[in-house]
Amino acid sequence: MTTEKDKPEHGVLPPRKRGFVARFRANFLTGLVVVTPVALTIWLIWTLTGWIDSWVLPLVPYKFRPEQYIGIDLRGVGVIIFLIFTGVVGWVAKGLLGRSLIAWGERIVDRMPIVRSIYNGVKQVAETVFSQTEAKFEQACLIEYPRTGIWAIGFVSTAAKGEVLQKLPGDEIMTVFLPTTPNPTSGFLLFLPKRDVTFLDMSVEDAAKLVISAGLVYPTPKSNGQPTTIATE
Fold this sequence. Notes:
Layout: H1 20-56, H2 67-70, H3 77-94, H4 96-109, H5 113-131, E1 139-144, E2 151-159, H6 162-167, E3 173-179, E4 187-193, E5 198-199, H7 204-212
Antiparallel strand pairs: 1-2, 1-5, 2-3, 3-4
Helix pairs in contact: 1-3, 3-4
């Protein structure tokens, strides 16, 4: 016999309890989201460390290898040797003797046609990637592209300068890089009036994730210092 308390309000049935399989599936997916990035990160570090060891350790005399004394082949010894060696080379290269040796070596390389092209190309890439650490995008933004009413995410490089600023009309022109999806390393360099640029509060890293994921990964706002939780429903 049902009473008035047992009847659903407004004809809405009470939610059914989720079964064991459904709860286990939700918990498994939540655990997968947590475990996968950690496992992939550990695997990448382990693989990269082994790859560096395989290149460095054969160049080290056997009597200087630690496994000869401790009896264990430690992974990562080659990485430590590589870091120390590279640091010493950089310290020497900053001195007068090092700069003279580098200039002398580059003059020799410039006389070799094929080697010269390879060396200059690798050197340019290395200087771009490792030397210009201060060069980075200032802020993420939205611009109307490829036509009015359609918006795309861009990255503000800096305010336009020099001849570009002189030749373009307007008071302030922004240099904006418009990346492609899902490969943000290619894109378009645009010069836009500042009034046509809508600046975003999200970081450049979060905007890059949004571009790479083709809109699947949106930045989660964090407020009041509360940790971000993973939804399981």
